[in-house]
Amino acid sequence: MDAFWIILTGSLVAISCGTLGCYLVLRKMAMVGDAISHAVLPGIVLAFLFSGSRDPFTMLLGAGAVGLLSTFLIETIHRRGQLQEDASIGVVFTFLFAVGVILISMYAGQVDLDQDCVLYGEIAYVPLDLLYTKSGASLGPRTVWILGGVLLAVIALVSFAYKELAATTFDSQFAAAIGISTTLWHYALMGAVSLTTVASFESVGAVLVVAFLVIPPATAFLLTDKLPVMLGLSAVVGILSAAGGYALAVAIDGSIAGAMAVVGGAEFALALLFSPRYGIPARIKRKTHEELPSVS
Amino acid sequence: MDTILDALMLSNPNVRYVVFGSVLLGCAAAVVGAFTVLRKRSLVGDAVAHSVLPGVCGAFLVTQTKHPLALLIGAFISGWLSLVVIDFITRKTRVKEDSAIGIVLSVFFGAGILMLTAIQQTGSAAQSGLDKFLFGKAASMLLDDVMIFGGVAALLIAIVALFFKEFFLLSFDRDFARVIGLRVPLLDLLLSTMTVLAVVVGIQAVGVVLMAALLITPAAAARYWTERLGIMVVLAGLFGMMAGVTGAYISTAAPSMPTGPWIVVVTSVVFLLSVLFAPRRGVVAQAVRYKRNRTQITDENILKALYQMGESASEFTTVHSTEEIHGHRRMQLLTLQQGLARLRRQGYVEHHHRGWCLTSEGIERGKRVARLHRLWEVYLSRHLHLAPDHVHDSAESIEHILTPELEEQLASELNYPEVDPHNSPIPYRKKAKQKPETGTRNA
After folding, report:
1. Do A89 and B209 touch (CB under 8 A)?
2. Which residues lie across from B350 on neighbouring strands?
């Protein structure tokens, strides 16, 4: 049963992150996702301190706010401070993450988080924290409920705003011309990424969030040209790496989050080799075909 | 308190090593980072930092020791491999660089975590402390570590000093570097190798996640203070050294405090101060410059308006009410009132009970703005063949920018025209009004 809950948790994170990640990858903003996933840490810690508990709503609120703040800072330093974007990302997320780690060690007694957990989470403990009904029947792990809610929210966002997100992603000038606010949808997407990150953070840690934000979408990107197909494939790739990662971790008795990232990497490598259109052998074949001297 | 004092006095030889080592680490990472940032590869540095972990664990698995040299070699190999993979994915597939960085970063790090946890499960006593690589701890460096990591850091600084000119060209003008016969691919390789080495040693101080800050933040801060690469590299090095010293002191004075994060926070504060207060590129300096320009433009527009009103009445010392001026030149009423008050303080206008009139200085300055405006209109219509109704907007902005030298050049280039394309006369200064008999410049 534990295995089921752990794989389910991993899959929920994988689908939420992968769905949003598709947009990040297509917008060439994968590293902003990376930055947010690290930068929300002080928000989580502060929410802990203020609410004194793991109340999910305070956490989502606090960390979501810090996530948005970090994208705002990145943009502001890039625009107003005229610093190139990659450096701006690097400066902002390391600073916020550092503040988070310092807060953790200052309030170590009050905050039930430690540095290792921040990086690679405690997915193995997910099945231990169960929700119960009043009559005492178990409803399953708390995390699963929270992540399930987040997944519904992400699916709702992507289906209601499908047109807007697609337009601002593929052709922001066209989007602006037909009256879709690129800024609004930028921050809506970033807000969703922050919320998903926060919800996933505790159970899987910062690194697996990054892995699920980037690897399944990039793998799907190698396999298709259509956005709906890419979204679906990314979910499938994510679920496979959650299940495969669990098996690998059990086999060699190591970190589950780490193993899930490794399996994701293997799937990406497979797509790289065997994608019929965008795999490397396919590309080489096409290239040599094209470069055949034309016979006059 | 004693420990702080000890640390400050460097009386304890252990503390001396730690301080010395951290200073070198911070400095080397920042100096190499300056080139990483300039080549827009900051986040590649982040990926390399995450990617050394499997190498460290691998080296431990092979040698079963934590000898710094073995770990260094392992870290170096996997860090280097991550660069190759990022480069490969970016070049050979449709996946863009940002995604490639994200993939490599998380997969390598995931593999590292997997290996680390698996090693920890074996219960081997020798492994304890491997996780120092995750978060870094300057103070726990032993003499051996300081010798090796400090040595690498010193080597990096020396290489930068030695190849400064080559790296300079590589960062700014690769084509030129190639043309004058530099081996660009080889230099690229050298710089990448140095980035990996800087990461490998810097991780000792701040750990995996925050390593990017050691590379990027000092260089980004230094960029605000100067336009010259040499100064930027030295400044970045100094900021990095500051970070190293701070880290070492915090480690020795408050061992329960996490060293790496404090180093990063200190550097970030330096960065923030630079963004805000650097003399030319800083946000405050820019805001001041912007405000000053706005003020100058408002003032000159008011003077020009008064001058033009005088022109149509052929009488420059007439008194005009604020409403009249406002009717002639649309702007915020408050801006106009403040501008008039300011001009009065500066002696360009006088206030009478029914309104405002120009002083002789005010007439000269208003005349100059009108002159520049009209000269520019002539220039645009003659040289760019723009229609007379298309030249006004451009002249409206250029009139505040032209320097006296440019004005002189423009006037002589146009051979001192009498009127602008709208047939308004161009008012010259008294002595410039006679055309010089010789000395019109050759166009």
Report:
1. no
2. B357
Domains in chain A: boundaries = 2-278
Contact indicator for A23, A81 with CB cutoff of 8 Å: no
Residue among A30, A210, A255 minimizing CB distance to B113: A255
* DSSP-derived secondary structure letter, A80: T
Instruction: Determine contact: A29 vs chain B, CB below 8 A.
Output: yes
Contact (Cβ atoms closer than 8 angstroms) between residue B420 and residue B377:
yes
> Computed from CA positions of residues A271, A277, A283, A285, in that sequence, does the dihedral angle turn out positive or negative?
positive
DSSP tag of A123 = G
For domain A2-278, give the CATH number: 1.10.3470.10
Q: Which of B206, B209, B269, B273 is the best substitution to test chain A (most A C-beta atoms within 10 A)?
A: B209
**Angle, alpha carbons B269-B273-B275 (nearest 5°):** 115
What structural domains does chain B harbor? 2-278 (1.10.3470.10), 285-358 (1.10.10), 363-433 (1.10.10.10)
3-state helix, strand, coil in chain B (%, to 5): 75, 0, 25
Q: Give the pLDDT of chain B (443 residues) as one tens digit per residue.
A: 555 565 566 667 777 777 888 888 889 999 999 999 998 888 999 999 999 999 999 998 898 887 888 888 999 999 999 999 999 999 888 999 999 999 999 999 999 989 988 888 876 666 667 777 777 766 667 777 788 888 888 999 999 999 999 998 888 888 888 898 888 889 989 999 999 999 988 887 788 888 899 999 999 999 999 989 999 999 999 999 998 888 778 777 777 777 788 889 989 999 999 999 988 888 898 899 999 999 999 999 999 998 988 888 878 878 888 888 888 888 888 899 899 999 999 989 988 888 888 898 888 899 899 999 999 999 998 888 888 888 888 888 888 888 888 888 888 888 888 888 888 888 887 654 444 444 444 43
